[in-house]
Amino acid sequence: MEVKVFREVSPESAAGHTAYRRHIGTVRTRSGYLSEITGMLAGLAAEEIVFGARSDGSGGSDGSDLQQATVLAAGMEVSIGLGRNLAYLAPLDDRAVLAALGRDARLRRSVNRTLRKCLERSRELLRAHRPALDGLAGLLGESGSAALDDIIASIRNGPEVKPMNPASTQENLQIPGFKGLVGQNSSW
To answer: CATH for 2-171?
Structure first.
């Protein structure tokens, strides 16, 4: 998976945009989806850690990190058989998945549980890499952007994070020098 982060700050909006591009032909597992959701929620977690509270920048619109994470978590439940439910209820399409989510309180609870656990995992990872997070926050605060090389350098200088399940490291989201992002967790 390729991730690009775009942040435009203006008097009208401080919102950013994160673009995720999946490589065609890649087969994803449950832990792969959970890793992706964890990454999508990292902006929320970073705001909580760095600023003490999160803002509305990660949600509120189609294509936002929170919207994309919600669609993936709900899609695991209603479309692709990687959640608590095996039944196919809707195509893995934003509108169909969100419509199913709006109709079913039990599904909303399940999706919220997944989102909360992934957000907590994001917090754990960012706390474990606090010096890198603070360095990146400082760089972004000064210049408004960061080159990929600068981001990778700050990550490489941080401690290694142990995966939830060491046997699943080949399924983890991998960034050079950042080992063990998220593994399988059978209790989810």
So the answer is: 1.20.58.760
pLDDT digits (tens, 9 = 90+) for 111-126: 999 999 999 999 999 9
Phi, psi dihedrals of residue 3, rounded to the nearest 5°? -125, 130
Residue with tokens 């999508």: 40
Cβ atoms within 10 A of the Cβ of 161, count? 19
What is the rounded distance in angstroms from the CA atom of residue 100 to the CA atom of residue 104? 6
H or E segment and range at residue 28? none
Would you list the domain boundaries of the chain?
2-171
DSSP label at residue 22: P
Residue 115 structure tokens: 């989102």
Three-class secondary structure of residue 68 per DSSP: helix
**Which token pair is 23?**
């490589």
- State pLDDT tens for residues 149-169: 877 776 676 545 444 443 333
Rounded CA separation 66/63 (Å): 8
Residue 70 near residue 27, CB atoms below 8 Å = no
Which position has the higher pLDDT, 166 or 4? 4
29/45 Cα distance (integer angstroms): 24
Average pLDDT over residues 165-176: 38
Is the Cβ–Cβ distance between 115 and 69 less than 8 Å? yes
